[in-house]
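Action item from last week, closing it out:
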Amino acid sequence: MMANHSRRTGQAWAIAGGLVLVIGIVALIVGNLLSTPPSQAPTSTPTPGTTPSTSTPPTDGLVVDESVAERGWVPEPVTTDAETYVRAALTAAGTFDTTLSSYEEWIAYLGTWFTPDTRYTTEEDRQAELDAAKLEMRQGVVLPEIEWDSLANENGRVTAVTEGDVVPAPVPQDASGDMTIGTADVTLTFTRADNAGNETSYDETARVSVQVLCGPESIPVPDSPQQPGDCKIVRFFTETVEP
């Protein structure tokens, strides 16, 4: 999957046939960043295997902080169901309102969805990979700040919807069985307003992959309904990962 402290390269949310889409700009920006191919695995020794956790049904409507919807963001669900969480994570990475928050606030909020990759054995390695995963999201997956500013000049917003089936794929060297990679189609609706306040909207689509951890080593948001074992994001991928 990933090499420890490895350099990452790739394009944002690729579509088969070579067309690469970055959320919110689709083919307007081609971004290069430091990345590793999804097929590589950690060089650190994986943590010894544990019994895979049993997935329980999600708690209907329970979220970490429902008030974030007032800022144009998607509330993070509190759930042990990987598919439910994958859908929410993919939706959150493409949903925002430039009139209700700043770019840095949105990026910081998405960062609260993450948890360290438990295949790395030391705290230093886990923190390094967590930082790299957040940087990868910012530089190669979500809307770049320059495009946010352009959209903000037109009081713009984007709403994402995860559609169709979530296709699961195993995570290499995950002895615990608590991690999974989910891939699904996402429809992004862009809305802009002219100087007279007249709005126009259009849709774009992307196919996106995200790795999540739904096991006892996930780290919940402090002072929230989340508990260890609830699902969290480990990494977004700049290219789709299909089984």
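Closing note: The two ends are 13 Å apart (CA to CA).
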